[in-house]
């Protein structure tokens, strides 16, 4: 049986602390404790990409990452890349290209594409295909999605390069983020922790 540990990390621009079992998946902590349900669970074995988040500026499948390994890391979920009145360029392009049907896969694609554009603001079509090769879609077809992301990069590249990151991810700059969790759970605090948390 795993003991509770304290994990401190940055979540969508906010420093958080959680006391929980070290062997819980990041995916479950995000969805069940932080109520960030935009991150989806598909295959649970790292094959579909529906659970993709960004950790330290890299796309990561959160179903394969344990919360115990998140200490000191910078985690961004789909809720952290936009606000209700400001979609990021990838999301806008996906809408413009109608590259969405049921939408279940979409948060994962947005996160993989956003991580790519953070690392490589001007990817080729082939580089986009490679970056998205870990994301599966069963309804839309990949061409519209890849077209949308290519277009997003072109549009964003016409913006001021200094604005690049903020164009992709709203920058809190020490101010309250545009995004806020709906119900911040008791187990997650800006500092300290809750000894009473009992997660399996
Ligand atoms: S649910 Fe994580 S990769 Fe499919
Ligand atoms: S839009 Fe339905 S799985 Fe991709």
Give structural notes.
29% of the residues lie in helices and 14% in strands. The chain has 6 helices and 6 strands. A 6-stranded mixed beta sheet has the order 4-3-5-1-2-6, with helices on one face. The protein is globular and about 50 Å long. The chain has 2 domains: 4-81 and 174-189, Roll (Ubiquitin-like (UB roll)), CATH 3.10.20.30; 89-168, DNA polymerase, domain 1. It is an alpha+beta fold and 200 residues long. A hairpin with a 2-residue loop joins β3 and β4. The chain has helices at residues 26-33, 89-96, 106-119, 125-131, 142-157, 164-168; strands at residues 4-11, 14-21, 52-55, 58-61, 74-76, 188-189. The structure holds FE2/S2 (inorganic) cluster (2 copies). The site of one FE2/S2 (inorganic) cluster has 12 residues, from loops.
